């Protein structure tokens, strides 16, 4: 395993992805995740789990339009 791929927020991301997996939106695999057909309308929300800018500093203004 490449330690350079780890960062402080990785555990939090995995928790969010696990919740999405429980909802049937993604499938967590050993080397990645897959978005399911049910998850396709929520791909923007899924990607937000990886947005470190959002995680490290709560935005003072809206960064983009609201999601579903």
UniProtKB/TrEMBL annotation:
<protein>
    <submittedName>
        <fullName>Coproporphyrinogen III oxidase</fullName>
    </submittedName>
</protein>
<dbReference type="InterPro" id="IPR058240">
    <property type="entry name" value="rSAM_sf"/>
</dbReference>
């Amino acid at each position: 395993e490449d330690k350079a791929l780890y960062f402080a927020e990785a555990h939090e991301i995995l928790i969010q992805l696990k919740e999405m997996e429980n909802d049937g939106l993604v499938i967590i695999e050993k080397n990645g995740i897959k978005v399911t057909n049910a998850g396709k309308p929520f791909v923007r929300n899924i990607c937000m789990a990886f947005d470190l800018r959002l995680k490290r500093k709560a935005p003072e203004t809206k960064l983009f339009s609201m999601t579903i």
